[in-house]
Automatic annotation (TrEMBL):
It comes from the Bacteria. This is VOC domain-containing protein. SUPFAM superfamilies: Glyoxalase/Bleomycin resistance protein/Dihydroxybiphenyl dioxygenase. It holds the Pfam family Glyoxalase. Residues 6-118 form the VOC domain. The lineage of its organism: Bacteria, Pseudomonadati, Pseudomonadota, Gammaproteobacteria, Lysobacterales.
Amino acid sequence: MLTGCKVGAIVFFVTDLGRSLAFYRDTLGLPMQSLDGHDGPWAMGEVGELTLVLIPRPARAGDTPVVVFSLDGGIDDYADALAARGVEIVVPVSEAPDGGLSLDFVDPDRNALSLYQPAGAARRK
């Protein structure tokens, strides 16, 4: 039924919109913007062909699926930068099942996020 579809958006319910917007925009460097909608403030940003949406509403940690951001290399540089910004790393850089590398961390609401780079890509840029 979903053959040929791709993920177009990921919605995160967040407890503090300002804090989460700052995390995604300022800490991770994603092009996020704050918006006003018919139900109040929210935020969104385009990351490649994917739209990230932040909606202020109490969230239960772990209810959100893991979102994987693909890298073409430099995963150790990203790990260092995240740690330097106080981001909680829950699984350090480790081998992924296909031989690539992954790193798992959480946002301020403990939504699970992951970085992935394919096998053979340089660990540092």
